[in-house]
Write a structure and sequence with these properties.
224 residues; 8-stranded parallel barrel; binds 2-phosphoglycolic acid
Length: 224
């Protein structure tokens, strides 16, 4: 089955990059693009994801964006609990759960990010950390996706071994048999084929490489 590719621009990109995406990937059925919110309103023909959402439905939360606003602009997905949100914006597991619930109520699919830090990885605590994150982040109803992103693999050029990814994804599949499971962390045109071939990996969450249209095209080719 064709794998999903979720492109996360983070706070990068431009109208120019959006135009390149439109030219290259308009109407692509398996590419989801997590745009900075200011670009989500541009008609693009792309499957859109937000990078964050506020858990409250509306109110005095200056600078934030609500679920109903995303829905108005046809946004179908939202990243929730990305490690950068946890690290720089102090999002907790309970915030992540609240945001995921808000998404599901609005018919937006939350892509819930989990992953261990380097310190936890080196202490052999990966399974334990992921289990705790699942216990504390997962909403009460189904319909969410999970992205396994080891924090130490994000933007570093380092990835776990295929055995390590395989082990985590098997654990996730056993707990969440009907959930789309993505791997993220330094996915690029060179390693995408290997990562897509790992059992129980339904797709990839791609950060840095998503800023290069040629690299995205290569990743999409391997996703077929
Ligand atoms: P990366 O980022 O591909 O640059 O490692 C992945 C992510 O943060 O989602």
């Amino acid at each position: 089955m064709q794998k999903w590719v979720v492109a996360n621009w983070k706070m990068n990109g431009s109208k120019n990059l959006l135009n390149e995406y439109k030219k290259s990937f308009k109407n692509h059925k398996k590419l989801i693009v997590c745009l900075p919110s200011i670009y989500l309103g541009e008609p693009s023909g792309l499957i859109l994801s937000a990078q964050n959402i506020h858990q409250q439905l509306k109110g005095a939360y200056t600078g934030e964006i609500s679920a109903s606003m995303l829905v108005e602009f046809g946004v179908k997905y939202c990243l929730v609990g990305h490690s950068e949100r946890r690290q720089h914006f102090h999002e907790t597991n309970s915030d992540v759960r609240a945001k995921a619930e808000t998404c599901l109520e609005a018919n937006i699919t939350p892509i819930i990010c989990i992953g261990e830090t380097l310190e936890q990885y080196e202490a052999n605590q990966t399974t334990e950390v992921l289990e705790r994150q699942l216990a504390e982040c997962l909403p009460s109803r189904s319909g969410f996706w999970i992205a396994y992103e080891p924090v130490w693999a994000i933007g570093t050029g380092k990835t776990p071994t295929t055995d390590e990814i395989s082990e985590v994804h098997l654990m996730l599949r056993e707990k969440l048999p009907n959930t789309i499971l993505l791997y993220g962390g330094s996915v690029n045109g060179d390693n995408a084929a290997t990562i897509f071939a790992i059992p129980n990996v339904d797709g990839a969450l791609v950060g840095g490489a998503s800023l290069d249209v040629a690299a995205v095209a290569v990743i999409l080719k391997h996703a077929r």
